[in-house]
Structures are given as C-alpha cells and as structure tokens.
Amino acid sequence: MPTDHPIFSRWPARHPDRLQLFSLPTPNGVKVGIMLEETGLAYEPHRIDITANESHDPAYLALNPNGKIPAILDPNGPGGRPLALFESGAILLYLAEKTGQFLSTDPGARYETIQWLMWQMGGVGPMFGQVGFFNKFAGKDYEDKRPLERYAKESARLLGVLDGRLANRDWVMDEGYSIADISLLGWVRNLIGFYEARELVGFDRYRHVRRWLDQGLGRPGVQRGLKVTA
C-alpha cells in the first residue's frame, strides 16, 4: 500500500489494507458508496468537503487532477498493485469487474449495461445538474428563464426515455439490478428531492420510474450507501 501517497498527508488511512474512498454524498459520490455497500468490499471512507474547496487541495489533486469527487485508491488493484481511479462511471466498472457483481459476463448484456451507464454520465448527470443549478441555486438570479426551461425540458425527455425502458422490466437491465441502476438512483432522487424539481419536470407522470426509484431506494445497500461520508 503506498501510504506515502500525498493524499494520506491530508487524509490519513487508519486501515491502509482496505480500499480508500474519497467522496461526498452528491449524486456522483453516492454511486460509489452504494456500490461498495452492495458488493460488501471492505473500504475506508474519507469525506471531501467540496464546499470548503477540499477537492482542490494539493493532496487531493495528487490523486485526482480533475479536482472532483469521488475517487478511490485500491491497495489491491490488478496484479496486486495499487490502483488510483477517478470518474464515478470508471469506478463502477472497475468495482463490478473486481467483484464479479452487478455487470453481466455475457458480452451483449455487458455492453448494453455499459451503454446505459454512459447514457447516465453523458445525459442524465449533466442535465439534471443544470436543472439543480438554475432551479435551486444561482440560476434564480438570471432574469432569462430560457436556460432553466431548456434543461427542464431535456430532463423530462430523459425521464421519458428511462420510463420507456422500465415499462416491462424491474430494472434497467433484464438480467437484474446492475451498475446502470446504481449510476441513476442518486440522480433521480436528487432531481425531485434536493433540487426541488418534481413539478418542474412533471415527475409524477413517469410511473415506471417512480416504481423503480422506490424499489431501488428500498434496498438496504442503497440506504447505507447514501449515508457514506455524510
């Protein structure tokens, strides 16, 4: 374990033999917390307070030069060598392959799952995040309401895509609960909760998404994962 890594000068590891998680319970952060709780991997969490600009601390930037959360440092990476990773989607893929959980080994189903993970990262995350900005935060200072309308409309469209996908299945993938669901749960939860956009996007009309969200949030691993680094 590289205990001499600069990250540990700021956030010391009490259990250096465990996977180290550096995060905060944002929609991207909870993805990894949920995944770790669902898989049962031993890990040690470290809270990175982005409101205090801790993600731009030089010690953190040595781990993640992009200055965002989450990031991990696994002392037992491929070939037994330490591995540092940032980007929540990449971390989900890594943990799925490391544990053999929540990602099908069937090539077709595997790539289809990754497709929906990329859809979340490229569409749902950025759009829902913009709705949060313009609906709840500094966006309210803008007289021009077209940005909010644009992002709300696109977020509603994305919810419609997800609703259609879930019309005849319990989870995003036919094979069952997967990293595709894990990647989405925190974002949909925040959209109608923390971002206060339930009415703005007409969420209640998406009955399949509502059922899926309730089902996902009812999982004990999800409940625990949402509280990691809180």
UniProtKB/TrEMBL annotation:
Pfam families per the UniProt record, alphabetical? GST_C, GST_N
The answer to whether UniProt assigns keyword Phosphoprotein to this entry is: no
Alphabetized SUPFAM superfamilies for the sequence = GST C-terminal domain-like, Thioredoxin-like
GO MF terms listed in the record are: transferase activity
**What UniProt keywords apply to this chain's record, in alphabetical order?**
Transferase
Q: Which residues form the GST N-terminal domain?
A: 16-103
Family label = Belongs to the GST superfamily.
User: Which protein, by its recorded name, is this?
Assistant: Glutathione S-transferase
